[in-house]
Every structure is written in C-alpha cells, then in structure tokens.
Amino acid sequence: MERAYPSTLDNQKTAFFGRASSVSVLEKALQMLESHPLCDHCLGRQFAFLAYGIENEEKGKMLKTMLLMEAQAQAFEKKMESIRILKTLATNGFFKLAEETLRKMGKRPPKKAAKVCFLCEGCFETVDELAKRAVEKLGEYEFSTFMVGVELPVDVEEREDEFKARFDVEYGENMRLELGKLLSRKIAQHSGKKLDHHRPDIVVLLNPKTGEVRLQINPLYIAGRYKKLVRGIPQSKWICTRCRGNGCEKCNWTGKMYPESVEELISPPFLEATRGVKVSFHASGREDVDARMLGKGRPFVIEISQPKKRFLDLKKLEEAVNAYAEGKVEVSDLRVVDKSFIGKIKKGEAVQKEYRVIVEFEKEVFDEDLKMLEQKLTGVIVKQRTPLRVLHRRADLTREKYIYEVKVKRLSPNKAEIRVRCQGGLYVKELVSGDEGRTTPSVSEILGQKAKPIKLDVLNVIM
Ligand SMILES: [Zn+2]
Ligand SMILES: [Zn+2]
User: Fold this and answer.
1) SS3 for 344?
2) pTM of the entire structure?
3) Domain 123-216 grouped into CATH 2.30.30.220
4) Does residue 288 carry a catalytic annotation?
5) CATH class of the domain whose range is 349-462
C-alpha cells in the first residue's frame, strides 16, 4: 500500500518521498538534514511562521521526531528508505533516539556524527552562559529597561541566506532575530528588568560566536529650572577667546573668560550622584552675563553620560546642587525626562519671556512719555536685526518678535523700570537702545532720545 502524506504547503495529497511536484514540510526538513547537520533551533527556524507560537527549538525536535516515526513505519513495511532516514537523523540531526532505533533494528549506527550545526555553529548552546555573563555585567548599573543587540559574523548570516535560497524557505525567521529573542527573555528572567525596544536604559551587545558582552549605557536626562541670583556669570563655560583655553595672561591662566558659570556651578553634584562619566548642559535660551535669571527660573536639561545610578533622590540632589552653588545659582523642579525633552526646550523661541530692565534716559522723561511708551510697545511686532554685540557669533538676520505687554514705572526724572512680556528670542537691551536703528520700534526711537539699559533681569520663562 502506498503511504500518502498531506502537504502543509497546499491541500493536495502528495506522495511522501519523491515524485511530487510540491514538497511537504516534512520532506523539506529531511532534504535539509540530508545536506547539512542542523540543530533543533536551526531546523525549526526554517518553519518559524508555521504553527507560529511554538518555539523553533521545539519545532525542530518535533520535525525530527516525526521523521523518526515515519522511518519506523516504513521499516515495518521493509522499505530500505527507512535506514537512510534513521542514519541522517543520527548524524546530521544529532538525534540520539535515531541512533538507538538503529541499534535495536540490529543496524550499526554511523561511526561519526556531525560535530556542529552547519548554520549556527553551536551559537545556540552558548545562549545560557552568555545571558548569565550579561546579567553579571549589568549588575554594576542601576537600570529599569534594556534591549539586546546580537552581533554575528558576516559569513554566518550569508550562509543562512544561501541556505534559505537553496531550499526555498518561505516561512523562516532569521538567526539574529531568534538569538535576540532568546537572549532577551533569559536576561529579563535573570535580572527582573523590562525589555524596551524604543528607549532602553542599556543596550546589551552580545556576540554568541566570540562570547563577547558589551554594554552601551544610554544617557540619563534630568530636567529642571535654574535661577541665577547674581550678575556676572555666563550660562555655560566660556573659553578664553585669546588663548582658546590654553591659559594666558588675559584669562589669568584659567583658559576661561569667567571663573565660573551656571553650568559649572550645578554640574558636579549631578555627576557625583549618578557616578556618570560626563555631563552636558542644555537650556532653553540664555540670559546675558550681566542679567539675573529670576522668577520660576529657566528650563534646562542635564545629560549624564554612562550613569551608574539612575534611581535618584531628586529632592536630595536638588539640595546638594544648591549647597554647591552657594546661593549664586538655584535649581528646582528636578525630574527625569527622555531625550526628546531637550529638543522641546531648545525650541523655546516660541515661549514667552518676562523681563525687567532699568533704563536710564539722556534727558528727563515725563509720565505722559512713559504712558505713550506703554501704548506703542504693547501688542506690537518688533523688527530686530542681529545686534551688533552678538554679530560675531550669529548670522546677520532680521527677526520679528511679538511683544505682549509693556509696563513702565518712573523711578527718578531720568530713570524708569520697564517690564516686558514678549516672545522668546527678543533682545531686550536692543529694544531699549535701538541698536543704531537695527531694532525698530525701540524705546529710544519712540521717545526721540537715547535710552540705555542699566540692569536686566529675566523674571519668567513661560513654556
Ligand atoms: Zn544551529
Ligand atoms: Zn586665555
């Protein structure tokens, strides 16, 4: 009696071995094993998307078991084919049960079994050990989420591609993907941490071939707001323009234009608390060196590279920073954010800012002058060419900035306090002086006399 075997690839009944134009899953598995030694993972993986949900290793074992059953059934019918299948399973299938079956049938099992799987060269055997070593290495770091990257030699991947083409593999998965899934699962089990493909704290790079384990520690981002309570401090470290940081007479051999900056006054405690390698400071705009930053403070983000600690007591950190900055700078609202937050605060041009500027006039000013000033500067668009004082570092452009409100208070016959609430990015000193006509309208232009900004404070940055 002819044995028939249903094809999984189509619904036609086809003969089990040979003859049929359409090849069944089991036939294909046998052909693969006849050509190359394949471990359970690598055989099962060629059919990954059939009976999806069953592990490739499990599937490989099942296919080999099915082949063994088929071979035994054929043996009962005295078909010679059965011995060939059993020998293939015993050698290229690394299948002990096939070896025993041959022995029971009184056949001598093949002398030498294949040494190693043709496709993975034993990579899957190292998975447990590799995951264990990764977890050990991860132990040095605080983290919540991770992702796995698998590195495979080019020739291993090329070999699998050729193999798939030769056997017309339609439902297979690739090796890197399977290794990644297995390693991720094991690392999650052993570490108790979560897998995250979008924004992992740590990327674990594993090479199953060489056994190499590398960690890529992603930065930690802490956002907050800072106030600058004294004048004369730049926002970030300002390298000496004459010696470019090497040290010269002009900078008193410090390499810097100013001995300290907001950045330098707040960074060290962040570095210490996180035990990172370095910090970068990002802020939403900047105030002038001689301007204070008051109110609720200016938004900033500190980026810490390769932090060992991520689970921080932010209240304590805030206290440490404020103690370190000795009342010159004060931070508040510290919180952990993700990287995209830097982009958000850098686009701060759209936010509103509130300034207080003390202005000195050349001649006496009267209340009606100041009333007119309020009216003519409230709800207007100011055209501003890049100020002369920053022209050396910024392109010469004309920008348009909106002023929401201006309030003026007279302090003495030729002094007034002006409060300006405007679109971020407006140069307020130039709004007062007019910058030789480059800013219009301006306080000088409206009053027809020279107005000079004496003291400037940023009162609020509204996100
Ligand atoms: Zn393999
Ligand atoms: Zn210098």
Assistant:
1) helix
2) 0.77
3) no
4) yes
5) alpha beta
